[in-house]
Amino acid sequence: MTLATVTPPWAYTLQLPQDPRGPGIARSTLRTVLRVHGLRDLIDTAELLASELVTNAYRHSSGPYSLRLRGAGRNRVRVGVWDSSPEIPEPFCGGAVGTPCALSERGRGLLLVRECAASWGAYPIRGGLPGQGGKVLWVERTAPHHP
Ligand SMILES: Nc1ncnc2c1ncn2[C@@H]1O[C@H](COP(=O)(O)OP(=O)(O)O)[C@@H](O)[C@H]1O
Ligand SMILES: [Mg+2]
Question: Where are the alpha helices (DSSP H) in 13-117?
Fold first, then answer.
């Protein structure tokens, strides 16, 4: 079997520390994975989506967090971000959300993520051991010319 014939499902998990270099490492890892899997058309938008989610995990939780990338069909990727905070932010709780205050300097990232994602969701992770608990926020994105 040649590399070119490898088809989904493929998946990668990157464990990230509570360190300001984490989001950048997550972005460059995502670029490498999507390029090697022939999903170049997805790279820029998937990087934006992952960047928002991992930066939130870094800023709004206090422990380690992780990025999971998975092929979700021939031209589709799922980006999941786990962190140890059990709180699911409002834009990912489902339903409509209001637009942020015009003068607010925060609260736009997740609205943008929802807009750019083909689908999105969140679920709690149960368990009391280190590395368990918290929640996963996920999004999927399909390459634009492959609806
Ligand atoms: N991973 C997370 N864990 C807990 N709370 C979060 C997480 N991500 C976002 N939030 C909450 O949702 C709010 C909105 O997030 P976002 O739209 O990315 O705006 P910002 O990060 O600029 O505050 C955050 O201010 C924070 O209170
Ligand atoms: Mg944010």
Answer: 22-36, 40-60, 109-116
